[in-house]
Amino acid sequence: MMDRVVLSARGLSKKYRLHHRGRHRLLEFFGVPVGGGSVTEHWALHDVSFDVERGSTVGIIGRNGAGKSTLLRLLAGTVAPTGGEVQVNAQASALLELGTGFHPDLTGHENVYASGLYLGLDKQAMDRVYGDVVAFAELGEFLHQPVRTYSTGMYMRLAFSLATCMPAEIQIIDEVLGVGDLYFFRKCLQRFSQLKEEGRTTILVSHDLGTVLRLCSRCLWLDKGRIVKDGTPLEIVNAYLESIYDDYDRQTVPAAAEPGAEDSGAMRATRAVRVEGVDFLDATGQPSRTFSSGDPLTVRIRYDSRVTLEHPVVSVGIYRTDGVLVCNAISSLDEADLELVAGTGSIQLVLDRLMLGPGEFGVSIAIYPSLDLSDSAKPQHAVFWHRPHNFTVKRPLGVAVDLGVFHHPARWQAERGAAIGLKT
After folding, report:
1. Residue 209's CB: how many other CB atoms inside 10 A?
2. Which end of the chain has less neighbouring CB within 10 Å, N or C?
3. Could you report the per-residue pLDDT of 15-36, keeping only the tens digit for each?
4. At 267, is the pLDDT very low, low, confident or very high (cuts 50, 70, 90)?
5. Side by side, which strands form the sheet with 83-88?
6. Distance between CA atoms of 357 and 180, rounded to whole angstroms?
7. Cα-based torsion angle of the residue sequence 220, 221, 222, 223 in order, rounded to the nearest 10 degrees
8. How many CB atoms lie within 10 A of CB 358?
9. CA-to-CA distance for 9 and 230, rounded, in angstroms?
10. Would strands 226-231 and 218-223 be described as parallel, antiparallel, or unpaired?
11. 346-352 contacts: CB < 8 A, separation 24 or more?
């Protein structure tokens, strides 16, 4: 197990001293003690421990100020921890916040070689990767202009290209993908996939949850300097979103609010509607976790509610285990008029023929008192449920080729002679 671990953090903590006056910071720099009332201690990171295995892609998410960037600086070795230790068992390359690492008066070309020297690489080693850096960055004639003349996007192109072309086994990358254009963003995603195929390790901080779901095999959620959850990206992202909804409700829903038939915020805040569990049923109505394409599948949602919802909307999202949403069944789009009666009960989604290809899939459940499909920004659900509870679609016997995510019914036919509709 230990030979698979390329990075290990144990009890990692970082404390910053926040000075209320600038001159106190200067006095302390020269060793002059200042009064305790003029300094506040802030723990950006507190007792963080985890291991990273070789070849994994680990995403780190959390709100602003959660300690994500501080953690990356400690992992990269650019700042020292107040407590704990980091053990890195392979060469690492770091791309932290934009604006650091390059000298503004040097050209892009000069900065590439200067960065290599800083990392301990000689000119011959840099010559070997220089062509890849230039080709990936696509800066053209701007490569020989001072970096201070670059736009933010151009700077990011060069910094990302340099960080990911270096002969390092570990890539440590802070939130930078959001400043590039769509074309380069797609190139970055392809580069991440290439690094994964090469067996290299990536640790990525991002506020783009879709990117985390798409790229990462594991996710850490940081809050107030501590790890809240560590698990699969889909599981952690959904738990993180639930916490955001909870905070939104605490700020917008009165503390003494009673759940009403149309007040989704009060329902969430008071847990008026709960999903107790989800079952996957086969053609005989028995619970099962294994199906074949074309089989009937029923998703049974067991609920417990303190209110009656006369015309609720229920959605069942089916996901691949890498977080890709395969389909989202929404009862109102299927013109289903449901009733959720107070007490315990169940709602069933019946798929007469399962059109999914081979693979493992999970579901997420949302119940709404009503749903405005044109508004994707405002939380409208009474309850959202997602747990690591999956079902498997079997691969047909004797089939080894990739059949894709969706198995669409099809008819085939062949005709002799010229194609219909073509004139000769």
Report:
1. 18
2. C
3. 987 766 666 666 666 556 666 5
4. confident
5. 39-53, 5-19, 83-88
6. 34
7. -170
8. 17
9. 14
10. antiparallel
11. 346/300, 346/301, 346/302, 346/303, 347/300, 347/301, 347/303, 347/314, 348/298, 348/299, 348/300, 348/301, 349/298, 349/299, 349/301, 349/314, 349/316, 350/296, 350/298, 351/296, 351/297, 351/298, 351/299, 352/296
pLDDT score, position 382: 87
Q: What is the largest CA-CA distance in the chain?
A: 95
Per-residue confidence (pLDDT) for residue 26, from 0 to 100: 61
Task: Give 102: exposed, middle or buried? Use CB within 10 Å, 0-12, 13-18, 19+.
Answer: buried
**Tokens read off for 418:** 């010229």
Residue 251: its pLDDT value, please? 73
The token duo for 293 is 């394409």
> 325-340: string of b/e by CB count within 10 Å (b at 16+)?
eeeebbbbeeeeeeeb
Residues 20, 41 contacting (CB under 8 angstroms): no
Task: In whole angstroms, give the CA distance from residue 323 to residue 361.
Answer: 9
Instruction: Kindly tell me the sign of the dihedral angle through the C-alpha atoms of 248, 253, 258, 264.
Output: negative
Report residue 128: phi and psi, to 5°.
-70, -30
Q: What is the pLDDT of residue 91?
A: 86
pLDDT tens digit sequence for 102-126: 888 999 999 999 888 877 788 888 9
Question: Does an H or E element contain 73, and which?
Answer: helix 68-76
